[in-house]
Amino acid sequence: MGNTFLATLDKAQQAQITGLVSTQKPDLLAIVAKRAEISKTLKQFLQQGAVDEATVVNLAKQYGELDGAISYDYAKNFSTVGNSLTANQNATLMALRKTATDEAGGTPDYDNQCGKGYLYSAPMPSDAPPLIDTDFLFGACKAAASACSTNWDCCSFSCGDNQVCPAPFKLSSPAFQDGGTLPITYTCEDAKGGVSPPLAWTGAPSGTVEFAITATTLAVDGKKWNWVLYGIPASVTSLAANTTGIGTTGASTDSPDLKFYPPCSSGSGPRIYTFTLYALSTKPTFSTSPVSGAVLADAIGPVTIGSRQMSVTYTFATGH
């Protein structure tokens, strides 16, 4: 996976990633030494019955500064590479990520994630000490209808009153697969102008009051909103192709009309289009009307209790 990731990058991008080893090594070694020093100091509780609090706090601050420097280096180098990716690189790495994380159906719910744990890059030995279920830390959940345990497994979003895991939250479409190709019917190259695709979902989180849906384009000049739909009743579990009369449609980036605006990217190569479903705990309030994609994103952020995505690609035959 790592070799495939690096092979997708050009030499300058590769250097940003592989160079982290040398950049972070001094701080990593210093962290190991600082942890050892903190542990040695805390052991004085057993040996002397007391420890100087200021000394421990000062050591912990130094540890935090080192950890912060490492996080900064990661963020800086990876964002530099991320911002320089071509559309083809983006599509390749998106597909690789879905394989590496074993995303169920390509959606980021991790419900079907499996395999042993890893210590750095090496598999944990079979006789390694058992670990409690930590899937809840990563949004992974036990299979539907299995009993909830007492060690905080999330079971989608909550165990529920009956202490049984609900069905996982999933988004799908009868028209395409996540990671696949968007049919021409839902683009501006369609003879009829393109319509919104059919979508369906199951396992919405407990407490969902309504849904919102967005369709976005990862374009050369930044993110664009093709579809902004909100106020979808919690009782709705699917949308037909070219749906109307359900929810409220906001403003897209490239059209003044309040409707689904079919992808119509310019330039060569595949473009990535992402459909996102949001489960909301309450009705959002908006500062402007009509509601744009950016306004919707800001408003639903605090009340989103679950979301699922499907990303597809499409290569236009001509420029638009």
Description:
The chain has 320 residues and is α+β, with helices and mostly antiparallel strands. It has 3 domains: 2-84; 110-168, no CATH class; 170-315, Phosphatidylethanolamine-binding Protein, CATH 3.90.280.10. The chain has helices at residues 2-8, 11-18, 20-42, 44-48, 53-84, 87-100, 293-300, and strands at 118-119, 122-123, 170-172, 199-202, 210-219, 222-233, 238-239, 248-249, 270-280, 304-315. The radius of gyration is 24 Å and the shape is globular.
- Rg, Cα atoms, Å: 24 Å
- Helix proportion: 25-40%
Assess the beta-strand content as a share of residues.
Answer: 15-25%
Tell me the distance between the termini: 35 Å
CATH topology of the largest domain: Phosphatidylethanolamine-binding Protein
SS summary, helix count: 7
| Structural shape | globular
CATH architecture of the largest domain: Alpha-Beta Complex
CATH class call of the largest domain = Alpha Beta
Order of helix and strand elements from N to C terminus: HHHHHHEEEEEEEEEHE
Mean pLDDT over the full residue set = 80
What about the largest sheet?
5 strands, antiparallel
Q: What class would the helix/strand composition place it in?
A: alpha+beta
Strand order of the biggest β-sheet:
8-6-5-9-10
The tally of strands reads: 10
The CATH homologous superfamily of the largest domain: PEBP-like
**Unreliable residue runs:** 102-118
Question: What is the number of domains?
Answer: 3
